[in-house]
Amino acid sequence: MADVLNHLSNNLPRRKFDAVIIGAGGAGMRCSLQLAEAGYDVAVLSKVFPTRSHTVAAQGGIGASLGNMSEDNWYWHMFDTVKGSDYLGDQDAIEFMCREAPKVVYELEHFGMPFDRNPDGTIYQRPFGGHTANFGEKPVQRACAAADRTGHALLHTLYQRNVRARTQFFVEWMALDIVRDADGDCVGVVALEMETGELLVLEAKVTVFATGGAGRIFAASTNAFINTGDGLGMAARAGIPLEDMEFWQFHPTGVAGAGVLITEGVRGEGGILLNKQGERFMERYAPTLKDLAPRDFVSRSMDQEIKEGRGAGPDGDHVLLKLDHLGAETIMKRLPSIREIAIKFANVDPIIDPIPVVPTIHYQMGGIPTNYHGQVVVPKNGDANAVVGGLYAIGECACVSVHGANRLGTNSLLDLVVFGRAAGNHIVASKLRDVGHKPLPRDAGDAALARLARLDGSSSGENSQEVAGDIRRAMQAHCGVFRTQELLDEGVTRILELAGRVGATHLKDKSKVFNTARVEALEVDNLIEVAKATISSAAARKESRGAHAHRDHPERDDVNWLKHTLWYSDGNRLDYKPVRTTPLTVETFQPKARTF
Amino acid sequence: MSAVVEPSQHAASAAQGRRVVKFSIYRYDPDKDARPYMQDLEVELEPTDKMLLDALMRIKQVKDDSVAFRRSCREGVCGSDAMNINGRNGLACVTNLRDLEQPIVLKPLPGLPVIRDLIVDMTQFFKQYHSIRPYLINDTPPPEKERLQSPEEREELDGLYECILCACCSTACPSFWWNPDKFVGPAGLLQAYRFLADSRDQATSERLDDLEDPYRLFRCRSIMNCVDVCPKGLNPTRAIGKIKELMVRRTV
């Protein structure tokens, strides 16, 4: 094995780029567009063809205070986002995002995105959970929508625009590990071409993580199979902490049993949740916003209904999403894909019958810590947010943090586009073309090569997917909607045990050509880092905030816990840093009790 | 513990007997196989396994992890898992097992080079997609806000923009099999019309010029296999007819 390492380390092929972006979803392609149009030499790596990235599955809309339906402004959007985050969001980044929102949506329209339209020709907007007018007074229509295929429309439009800009894509390439030099700066990435099994070192003045979330660390998830947290794994292995990983969003409406997403836009269009008695129970929990309360709130209410015996179905294990009263015409026009999904995955036609739904893991609020330019930041010499040279992170893999402890619906697509664009602009402004590449350290490919060599040299052991399955089941059982100290502590023990098994798996298929078993085994190295970060951060946080609902500590504790968690893989160590409560230009929104 | 349902819990409520499904799968790994072959195998399903993709994942998990296929969203929107299923192109993730006769015969999409097993090289397919300039062309400076478009104008894009580029249609098309380098194919032409039909696009004339040749558009013989197999229910033949109409209209 040492032989192989030496040989490969010295002979790995190399290519140089100004910038390398890892991931071709909404964030990666918005960033690459900015760079390609500015004439930069940019490479975008993706495990899948760009339009197959998980952004494609987003349904309901992208949030922006266009005010096309009624009065709206970015300041109300900012308030909703801060309150939705349970005050854990960084208010400078949130102000930036909400101010930028209208501009980036208009830009998408100019790129050709097929938004639905109002009779006056403007972009159609629908109501969504937690979005209100006048600081919580009443729901507002802020979600700019392309039927219930907004993510698809957005992702294809961005790909198309990148085709126009001649962005260079490396399709079906998996990034394995980033390369940091002695200064800690990122100087490139080692990647695997899936079709040939060959490795390449991509040298870059700037590397951008845009690798999406890691929803596949849970057994029941709305996420695509590719969402294995590759960027988070790479960052953790490179010594970069992960922020606020205890905060995972359960989407209230995953199809029971299948996990497939049913957009909140259904409730935006007037759909309602019912328990087995046919009661619209959200009226009890959230008298003002009802079914359009934020997701953490609705998920907990549903869970409560089910626990108290009012769940529907033979096992009382789900609730019902009723939308037949919207009428066939609205459903066919505004929610056509939802109907398709319900028929295929739940055997019900929502024009006639309600859809059985359960809260299902959907979105990771935490991630690689960044500032609002997308630069990765870590604590260093007393500075909680010292910039890591040459490294950016954007989209779901990043923690800016605009979502804090709970994300509002439609803010994820917005996050991708705003911070993808902002990172691109920041990179352009840094005048990269005037500087050369930093030299690659001698051991540049070693970490990635060692991982591959272990798999290729394995002759016995369990299949990586057995370990992956156990990780998912453990996370599902120990880190759900409601958490207890006992469950979390047991979970930490189980996940750390599983981490030992990850290093001893066996890869039976040694083929070089499009070896999907090898790719999946490499993904497990990333899953386990995210699982460790999540369960360890959750077990330590002794309060309830946003999506982290702790039975033993049911109240939010702003005195002790209004702070961001930082988890380091090395030693499974935790640290904390303050929330940035000072916005860019306006007054701080002080924490208040969250009622809806 | 949370009430979020694990797949295994659901299994109990959907209690069924043992379900064994027979497959015949096209296998070819150029790294070790001299030539392709069909592999017969049986797999026992879990009660939650409903779609063909579930069964393929089960095969990979319990039978043979070397079976190679693409997959991602598992809900019919990313377009990864297109394959030839009992002789017909479709997406594994939205094909219900109960609708399939056994043994289920799985082959790669026809007409494209095979990389391995059920994975084809889609370069030619995407080359054709890129050839139609699949992006909005409008050289007037954009307004400060959105370009206005009436709901009726926007409706013209319905049935076009929803394409997921899975290639089921183009690889079911005999004209594309014969001339994949010259005939744009149904997927590319559907997108060509998507931009022709967009009230915001200004390149109608250039787009039509580009398609006016003996192959790019006119190799369509209205066989309609594309319409028959599209997993999203789209109609490329209709779009091709509309392009031809535009061409006729501009000559008179």
Oligomer: heterodimer
Instruction: Name the helix and strand elements of chain B from N-terminus to C-terminus, one letter apiece.
Output: HEEHEEEEEHHHHHHH
Biggest sheet of chain B, open or closed, and with what strands and sense?
5 strands, mixed
Structural class per helix/strand content of chain A?
alpha/beta
First-residue to last-residue Cα separation of chain A = 60 Å
Number of β-strand runs of chain B:
7
Question: What Rg of chain A is obtained from the alpha carbons, in whole angstroms?
Answer: 23 Å
Please report the number of helical segments of chain B: 9
Annotation, overall tally of beta strands of chain A = 22
Shape of chain A: globular
Poorly predicted regions of chain B are 1-15
End-to-end Cα distance of chain B, whole Å, is 72 Å
Low-pLDDT runs of 5+ residues of chain A are none
Interface with most residues: A-B, 85 and 69 residues
Q: Approximately how much helix is present in the residues of chain A?
A: 25-40%
* Largest sheet geometry of chain A: 8 strands, mixed
Mean pLDDT of chain B: 93
Topology summary:
The complex is a heterodimer of chains A (596) and B (252).
Chain A: H1 2-11, E1 14-22, H2 26-37, E2 42-46, E3 62-63, H3 74-84, H4 91-111, E4 125-133, E5 138-144, H5 150-164, E6 168-171, E7 173-180, E8 186-193, E9 199-209, H6 230-237, E10 242-243, E11 248-255, H7 265-268, E12 272-274, H8 282-285, H9 295-307, E13 319-322, H10 328-334, H11 336-346, E14 355-364, E15 368-369, E16 375-380, E17 383-393, E18 398-399, H12 411-429, H13 446-457, H14 464-478, E19 482-483, H15 485-502, H16 516-540, E20 549-550, H17 558-561, E21 563-568, E22 573-578
Parallel strand pairs in A: 1-2, 1-9, 2-6, 9-17, 15-18, 19-20
Antiparallel strand pairs in A: 3-5, 4-5, 7-8, 8-9, 10-21, 11-14, 12-13, 13-14, 16-17, 21-22
Chain B: H1 7-13, E1 19-27, E2 37-45, H2 52-63, E3 82-85, E4 88-91, E5 104-107, E6 114-116, E7 119-120, H3 123-131, H4 151-155, H5 174-178, H6 185-196, H7 204-211, H8 225-229, H9 236-251
Parallel strand pairs in B: 1-5
Antiparallel strand pairs in B: 1-2, 3-4, 3-5, 6-7
Helix pairs in contact in B: 3-6, 6-9
